[in-house]
Amino acid sequence: MSERNPDLVLYELQSCPYCAKVRRALSDLDLSYESRSVPSSRSQRSEVYEVSGQYQVPVLVDRTNGIEGMPESDDIVEYLYEEYGDGQSPPPSGVIGRLLSVFF
Protein backbone atom coordinates (compact mmCIF):
# COMPACT_ATOMS: atom_id res chain seq x y z
CA MET A 1 0.00 0.00 0.00
CA SER A 2 1.28 3.46 -0.91
CA GLU A 3 1.67 6.44 1.33
CA ARG A 4 -1.43 8.02 2.79
CA ASN A 5 -1.02 11.45 1.13
CA PRO A 6 -0.42 10.61 -2.51
CA ASP A 7 0.13 13.22 -5.20
CA LEU A 8 -3.28 13.03 -6.91
CA VAL A 9 -4.75 15.23 -9.66
CA LEU A 10 -8.36 14.91 -10.82
CA TYR A 11 -9.43 16.39 -14.16
CA GLU A 12 -13.13 17.03 -13.82
CA LEU A 13 -16.29 19.01 -14.49
CA GLN A 14 -18.24 20.12 -11.43
CA SER A 15 -21.57 19.10 -12.98
CA CYS A 16 -20.40 15.65 -14.15
CA PRO A 17 -22.02 12.78 -12.17
CA TYR A 18 -19.09 10.46 -12.97
CA CYS A 19 -16.69 13.04 -11.56
CA ALA A 20 -18.89 13.31 -8.46
CA LYS A 21 -18.52 9.55 -7.97
CA VAL A 22 -14.73 9.92 -7.95
CA ARG A 23 -14.84 12.97 -5.66
CA ARG A 24 -17.00 10.96 -3.25
CA ALA A 25 -14.45 8.12 -3.19
CA LEU A 26 -11.61 10.59 -2.61
CA SER A 27 -13.58 12.15 0.24
CA ASP A 28 -14.55 8.77 1.74
CA LEU A 29 -10.89 7.76 1.73
CA ASP A 30 -9.85 11.14 3.14
CA LEU A 31 -7.42 11.70 0.27
CA SER A 32 -6.36 15.19 -0.70
CA TYR A 33 -6.05 15.94 -4.39
CA GLU A 34 -5.65 18.77 -6.84
CA SER A 35 -8.81 19.47 -8.81
CA ARG A 36 -8.38 20.67 -12.38
CA SER A 37 -11.62 21.92 -13.87
CA VAL A 38 -11.81 21.40 -17.60
CA PRO A 39 -13.83 23.28 -20.24
CA SER A 40 -17.32 21.95 -20.85
CA SER A 41 -16.55 21.65 -24.57
CA ARG A 42 -14.68 18.41 -25.25
CA SER A 43 -12.85 20.01 -28.17
CA GLN A 44 -11.18 22.43 -25.74
CA ARG A 45 -9.83 19.74 -23.38
CA SER A 46 -6.34 19.50 -24.86
CA GLU A 47 -4.76 19.04 -21.41
CA VAL A 48 -7.01 16.05 -20.68
CA TYR A 49 -6.14 14.56 -24.07
CA GLU A 50 -2.41 15.04 -23.47
CA VAL A 51 -2.68 13.21 -20.15
CA SER A 52 -5.05 10.38 -21.07
CA GLY A 53 -5.37 10.14 -24.86
CA GLN A 54 -9.10 10.95 -24.72
CA TYR A 55 -11.34 13.94 -23.97
CA GLN A 56 -13.77 12.53 -21.41
CA VAL A 57 -13.63 13.20 -17.69
CA PRO A 58 -12.95 12.18 -15.00
CA VAL A 59 -9.27 11.42 -15.42
CA LEU A 60 -7.00 10.66 -12.47
CA VAL A 61 -3.26 11.18 -12.24
CA ASP A 62 -1.47 9.53 -9.32
CA ARG A 63 2.13 10.69 -9.46
CA THR A 64 2.97 8.64 -6.38
CA ASN A 65 2.32 5.40 -8.28
CA GLY A 66 3.11 6.50 -11.84
CA ILE A 67 -0.50 6.62 -13.01
CA GLU A 68 -0.34 9.22 -15.79
CA GLY A 69 -3.98 9.46 -16.84
CA MET A 70 -6.56 6.89 -15.75
CA PRO A 71 -10.02 7.40 -17.32
CA GLU A 72 -13.39 5.84 -16.42
CA SER A 73 -14.97 6.61 -13.05
CA ASP A 74 -15.55 2.96 -12.06
CA ASP A 75 -11.92 2.09 -12.78
CA ILE A 76 -10.71 5.13 -10.85
CA VAL A 77 -12.88 4.35 -7.81
CA GLU A 78 -11.81 0.70 -7.82
CA TYR A 79 -8.15 1.75 -8.06
CA LEU A 80 -8.45 4.28 -5.23
CA TYR A 81 -10.04 1.77 -2.87
CA GLU A 82 -7.57 -0.95 -3.83
CA GLU A 83 -4.55 1.31 -3.42
CA TYR A 84 -5.62 3.56 -0.52
CA GLY A 85 -8.68 1.90 1.02
CA ASP A 86 -7.09 -0.11 3.84
CA GLY A 87 -9.40 -3.01 3.06
CA GLN A 88 -12.56 -0.93 2.55
CA SER A 89 -14.91 -1.83 -0.27
CA PRO A 90 -15.90 0.74 -2.89
CA PRO A 91 -19.44 2.11 -2.72
CA PRO A 92 -22.04 0.58 -5.03
CA SER A 93 -22.07 1.61 -8.67
CA GLY A 94 -24.91 1.65 -11.17
CA VAL A 95 -28.25 3.18 -10.22
CA ILE A 96 -27.61 3.00 -6.48
CA GLY A 97 -24.20 4.60 -6.87
CA ARG A 98 -25.65 7.41 -8.99
CA LEU A 99 -28.37 8.07 -6.42
CA LEU A 100 -25.80 8.15 -3.62
CA SER A 101 -23.62 10.59 -5.57
CA VAL A 102 -26.60 12.89 -6.14
CA PHE A 103 -27.93 12.86 -2.57
CA PHE A 104 -24.75 12.49 -0.50
Structure commentary:
By secondary structure, the protein is of the alpha+beta class. It has one domain (8-100): Glutaredoxin, CATH 3.40.30. Helices cover 39% and strands 17% of the residues. It has 4 helices and 4 strands, in the order E-H-E-H-E-E-H-H. The protein has helices at 17-28, 46-52, 73-84, 94-103, and strands spanning 8-12, 34-37, 59-62, 67-71. The protein has a 4-stranded mixed sheet with strand order 2-1-3-4. Helix 1 (17-28) runs parallel beside helix 3. It is globular. The protein starts with 7 loop residues before the first strand and ends with a helix. The model has no long low-confidence stretch (mean pLDDT 88).
Question: What helical percentage do the residues reach?
Answer: 25-40%
State the domain count: 1
- Which structural class do you get from the secondary structure elements? alpha+beta
Distance between the termini: 28 Å
**SSE run:** EHEHEEHH
What spatial form do the alpha-carbon principal axes imply? globular
Tally of contiguous helical segments: 4
- Strand arrangement across the biggest beta sheet: 2-1-3-4
> CATH top level?
Alpha Beta
Poorly predicted ranges: none
Q: What's the β-strand tally?
A: 4
CA radius of gyration is 13 Å
What percent of residues are in strands?
Answer: 15-25%
| CATH-defined fold name | Glutaredoxin
What would CATH call the architecture? 3-Layer(aba) Sandwich
Overall average pLDDT: 88
For the biggest sheet, the summary is: 4 strands, mixed
CATH superfamily: Glutaredoxin
Protein name: Glutaredoxin
Pfam families: GST_N_3
InterPro entries: GLR_AS (IPR011767), Glutathione_S-Trfase_N (IPR004045), Thioredoxin-like_sf (IPR036249)
Organism: Halovenus carboxidivorans
